[in-house]
Amino acid sequence: MNDIEKAIETLKMENALMQFDLLTGEDYLIELQNKDIQDLYIANLIAIKTLKKQIPKKIKKFTYPKNIVYMYCPECDEGIDENNLFCSRCGQKLDWEVENE
């Protein structure tokens, strides 16, 4: 597990703990928490979503007749070219090793 994956797991664990009452052992809905806790919970969700985009995903590619290759983002299906390290639409980090397979 790399540092990004560890950070994601830590944020997920923190969010899970925010929804658990240590005194009673019962689930405690985030909607019933105070505003600061709710804001932290939402900030963690945003951070998780952003960090996931830093984990490279293999590009998708489709070959048309006459060997015309179309490459696109694995997250949002935006067309991409070989110069992109990240998708210009959604920001997903791209893994180009698929071309060597």
Which terms would index this structure?
two-stranded antiparallel ribbon, 2 helices, 2 domains, 101 residues, two-stranded parallel sheet, alpha+beta
Overview of this protein structure:
This protein is α+β, with helices and mostly antiparallel strands and 101 residues long. It has 2 domains: 50 residues, no CATH class; 44 residues, no CATH class. The chain contains 2 helices and 6 strands. It has a two-stranded antiparallel ribbon. The chain has a two-stranded parallel ribbon with strand order 3-6. The longest helix has 18 residues. It is elongated. It starts with a helix and ends in a 6-residue tail after the last strand. The mean pLDDT is 91.
Mean pLDDT across residues = 91
DSSP, total strands: 6
| Largest sheet geometry | 2 strands, antiparallel
Assembly level: single chain
What is the helix tally?
2
Distance between the termini: 24 Å
Main-sheet strand order equals 1-2
Q: In terms of structural class, how would the helical and strand content be classed?
A: alpha+beta
Strand content: 15-25%
Low-pLDDT runs: none
| Integer-rounded radius of gyration | 19 Å
Share of helix among residues? 25-40%
Strand/helix succession: HEEHEEEE
- Rough outline: elongated
Our count of domains comes out at: 2
